[in-house]
């Protein structure tokens, strides 16, 4: 085998891989679930009653922990961690880069030149000042004023990360600038949760005075692709951008649908077992795993949790999955669209709210009172989405997700809500308010339509909807697989909180005018059902007809990131965030700036990669094949053979020459477009140029590169092909 072929060498490596044996800590998951978490059990063993109570109160009601108790808690944490062999601790936070960040410090304090003690103080637990001047801050923090600080979030437990090299105690924190502006996802998420939970609690009290707390819940389904590490490394586009910028579709894609829920290949199974075990030790309640629709695509999902924890867990899970993949010679791809022509990956966000009395507020009931409560929350969510579709759209707008939305079984960019035929019937009934025979004069709650019991059956599903009601929760399906779910959740929590507050005001006004509580609620809801109809869509979201229909209804189909992001800085949105105490105008503007900038940078990088690959890999592969053909044709001619015998060589040479010439020109033009874009100082305008003048070249270049891939001899082609990347076993 030729050693000069990167691709063939990679293929050989991939084929030689052995399945890695995974050692489980025990046969029973319950023996090790949460063993690396400073949870209830560990806290009871290592904290005084007082400290334990303080942490519980902070978790449950958001109460502040005083410095002295923080000192005790830190000591307890250190003791627990050191017993487990931990040497370092870190504040663990979620900057706006979308990943997680950490900076390690040792539990060690020198007391003389040869002596030291293990130390971890309350103030080290509570607050840190990482020199984090290079994180995106949208102008909120000057690089010379590098001070931003991280502050402990006691509502998410600390945990130990063991990467087999060392063990580190990780402390979930928020990350804010010295002047107090949020520079991360967690800070505004916590504020949005506070707004939502307080608003929902007030509404709950219309139905049940005993409810003391509402908690918003989230279950995150995570889709991902796996490719062999050697093949991955032979694809600069995958390595640098996370997606394939060229590559023609494998002859066999997903058309046979034989991968979906199919049996999991052994090597992949070992990988899953390995990362699941690590995740379970960290208290991530992973429950399901299966193959997804596309070849090489899989999904895992934990049980739902409190939103803050669910998001920390998802961020941590992605991290674990990446690290463990290495052990198995695999690369995990979280990119929303790593391969053209087959399904992309999403991260379905299953969202609901529950009470401390054990009621899921989006679970339909049968008693009139529970039923009225369900309809109240259900209709208010629909109204919130109806009022802020563009903002929801903005919350999931990234360059990666743009390739996914609206293509290959992914929801379209048009935001709509699916509720199923039965609930559609219920809302119709609610709107027309047909009093059933014999109910006149009885309490108004009977006027609420009954909800059919069969609802909880999952048969009534619409996989094409970006935002679907699925029995007892809403599922935001348009969220991209690599996203930090905090982005869409901040928006969803805030718009629903805001909506519930408006609802409350309207109901109170009705009561003031003399209506019974039930009648007032009914009347406001009826108004909402009437006014938010256009957001409801039960049909096929993939169809072309929906685009036309949506346009008629006045629903937007925003397909490009720079346009989608604009929703963040609309006046009403700034007011929304401000009034609900989630983000200040200054913070929103900074975030907007970061997102637009990030978009520009990503296209710039992709453009460079595709240019380099074309010049240094694709064209040379084609030209070396061309030289081989020319050589053969020349020899045949020398031998005095008839022209017809080597005509096919000449034709192929001409074909290759045509494509290569065009490629060369396109790359040149693309670089020129990039130069033009870079001279534009205004970020928004630069983003538009990148979007409309640079990005279109990707498709054109790809088209020609893929043509070449189809004619160049297999041996000469240097980039691993789709069929090789996708069908790992
Ligand atoms: P599917 O693939 O059919 O959508 P899964 O079972 O894979 O369903 O995922 C459903 C997700 O929804 C799980 O994470 C589950 O825990 C979560 N879920 C269930 N009930 C709730 C709820 N009340 N609030 C939030 N998430 C929920
Ligand atoms: Mg789902």
Descriptive overview:
With 729 residues, this protein is an alpha+beta fold. It is built from 25 helices and 17 strands. Strands 9, 10, 11, 12, 13, 14, 15, 16 and 17 form a nine-stranded mixed beta sheet that branches. Strands 1, 2, 5, 6, 7 and 8 form a six-stranded mixed beta sheet that branches. The longest helix is centred in the C-terminal third of the chain and has 54 residues, at 585-638. The radius of gyration is 29 Å and the shape is globular. The two termini are 22 Å apart. 47% of the residues are buried.
Low-pLDDT segments: 435-445
* Quaternary status: single chain
In CATH terms, what is the fold-level topology of the largest domain? Creatine Kinase, Chain A, domain 2
Gyration radius over CA: 29 Å
| DSSP strand count | 17
Give the distance, in angstroms, between the N- and C-terminal Cα atoms: 22 Å
Structural class based on helices, strands and sheet pairing: alpha+beta
Give the ligands present: adenosine-5'-diphosphate, magnesium ion
Helical segment count: 25
| CATH architectural arrangement of the largest domain | 2-Layer Sandwich
- Arithmetic mean pLDDT: 90
List the helices and strands and how they pair.
Elements: H1 6-16, H2 29-32, H3 40-46, H4 49-61, H5 67-83, E1 88-93, E2 101-106, E3 108-110, E4 116-118, H6 122-126, E5 127-128, E6 148-152, E7 159-162, E8 167-177, H7 186-204, E9 214-228, H8 229-233, H9 236-241, H10 266-281, E10 286-291, E11 297-302, E12 305-306, H11 307-327, E13 330-333, E14 347-355, H12 368-387, H13 389-395, H14 399-404, E15 417-418, H15 421-432, E16 467-469, E17 474-476, H16 486-512, H17 517-531, H18 544-553, H19 561-565, H20 571-579, H21 585-638, H22 643-679, H23 683-694, H24 696-711, H25 722-726
Parallel strand pairs: 1-8, 15-16
Antiparallel strand pairs: 1-2, 3-4, 5-6, 6-8, 7-8, 9-11, 9-12, 9-13, 9-14, 10-11, 14-17, 16-17
Helix pairs in contact: 4-5, 7-16, 10-11, 12-16, 12-17, 13-16, 15-17, 16-17, 21-22, 21-23, 21-24, 22-23, 22-24
The structure holds adenosine-5'-diphosphate (ADP) and magnesium ion.
């Amino acid at each position: 085998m030729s050693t000069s072929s990167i691709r063939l060498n990679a293929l050989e490596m991939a084929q030689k891989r052995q399945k890695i044996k995974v050692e489980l800590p025990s046969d029973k998951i319950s023996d090790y679930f949460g063993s690396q978490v400073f949870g209830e059990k560990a806290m009871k063993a290592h904290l005084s009653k007082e400290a334990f109570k303080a942490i519980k109160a902070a978790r449950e009601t958001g109460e502040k922990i005083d410095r002295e108790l923080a000192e005790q808690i830190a000591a307890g944490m250190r003791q627990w961690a050191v017993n487990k062999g931990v040497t370092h601790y870190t504040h663990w936070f979620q900057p706006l880069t979308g990943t997680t960040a950490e900076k390690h410090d040792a539990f060690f304090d020198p007391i003389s030149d040869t002596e030291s003690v293990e130390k971890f103080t309350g103030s080290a637990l509570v607050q840190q000042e990482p020199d984090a001047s290079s994180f995106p801050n949208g102008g909120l923090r000057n690089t010379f004023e590098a001070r931003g600080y991280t502050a402990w979030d006691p509502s998410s437990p600390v945990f130990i990360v063991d990467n087999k090299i060392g063990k580190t105690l990780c402390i979930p924190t928020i990350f804010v600038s010295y002047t107090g502006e949020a520079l991360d996802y967690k800070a505004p998420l916590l504020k949005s949760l506070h707004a939502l939970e307080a608003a929902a609690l007030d509404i709950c009290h219309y139905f049940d005075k005993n409810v003391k707390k509402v908690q918003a819940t989230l279950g995150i389904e995570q889709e991902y692709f796996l490719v062999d590490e050697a093949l991955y490394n032979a694809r600069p586009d995958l390595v640098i951008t996370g997606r394939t910028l060229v590559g023609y579709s494998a002859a066999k894609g997903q058309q046979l649908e034989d991968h979906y829920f199919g049996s999991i290949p052994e090597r992949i199974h070992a990988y899953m077992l390995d990362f699941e075990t690590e995740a379970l030790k960290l208290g991530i309640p992973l429950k399901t795993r299966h193959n997804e629709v596309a070849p090489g695509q899989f999904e895992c999902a934990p049980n739902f949790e409190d939103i803050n924890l669910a998001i920390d867990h998802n961020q941590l899970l992605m991290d674990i999955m990446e690290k463990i993949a290495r052990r198995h010679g695999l690369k995990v791809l979280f990119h929303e669209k790593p391969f053209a022509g087959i399904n992309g990956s999403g991260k379905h966000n299953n969202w609901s709210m529950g009470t401390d009395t054990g009621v899921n507020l989006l679970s339909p009931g049968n008693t009139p009172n529970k039923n009225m409560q369900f309809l109240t929350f259900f209709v208010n969510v629909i109204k919130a989405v109806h009022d802020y579709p563009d903002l929801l759209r903005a919350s999931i707008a990234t360059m990666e997700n743009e390739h996914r939305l609206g293509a290959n079984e992914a929801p379209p960019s048009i935001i709509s809500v699916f509720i199923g035929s039965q609930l559609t019937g219920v809302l119709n009934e609610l709107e027309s308010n047909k009093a059933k025979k014999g109910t006149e004069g009885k309490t108004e709650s009977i006027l609420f339509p009954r909800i059919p019991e069969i609802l909880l059956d999952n048969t009534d599903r619409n996989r094409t909807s970006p935002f679907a009601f699925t029995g007892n929760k809403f599922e935001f399906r348009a969220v991209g697989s690599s996203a930090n779910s905090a982005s869409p959740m901040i928006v969803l929590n805030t718009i629903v909180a805001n909506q519930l507050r408006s609802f409350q005001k309207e109901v109170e006004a009705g009561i003031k005018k003399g209506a019974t509580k039930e009648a007032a609620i009914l009347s406001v809801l009826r108004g909402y059902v009437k006014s938010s109809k256009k957001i409801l869509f039960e049909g096929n979201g993939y169809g072309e007809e929906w685009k036309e229909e949506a346009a008629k209804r006045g629903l937007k189909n925003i397909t490009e990131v720079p346009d989608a992001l604009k929703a963040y800085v609309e006046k009403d949105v700034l007011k929304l965030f401000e009034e609900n105490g989630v983000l200040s105008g200054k913070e929103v503007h900074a975030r907007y700036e970061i997102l637009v900038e990030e978009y520009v940078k990503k296209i710039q990088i992709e453009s460079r990669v595709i240019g380099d690959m074309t010049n240094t890999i694709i064209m040379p592969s084609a030209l070396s094949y061309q030289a081989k053909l020319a050589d053969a044709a020349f020899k045949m001619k020398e031998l005095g053979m008839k022209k017809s015998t080597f005509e096919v060589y000449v034709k192929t040479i001409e074909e290759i020459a045509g494509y290569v010439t065009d490629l060369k020109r396109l790359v040149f033009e693309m670089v020129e477009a990039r130069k033009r874009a870079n001279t534009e100082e205004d970020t928004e305008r630069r983003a538009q140029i990148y979007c409309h003048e640079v990005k279109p070249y990707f498709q054109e270049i790809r088209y020609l590169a893929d043509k070449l891939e189809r004619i160049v001899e297999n041996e000469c082609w240097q980039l691993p092909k789709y069929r090789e990347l996708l069908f790992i076993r």
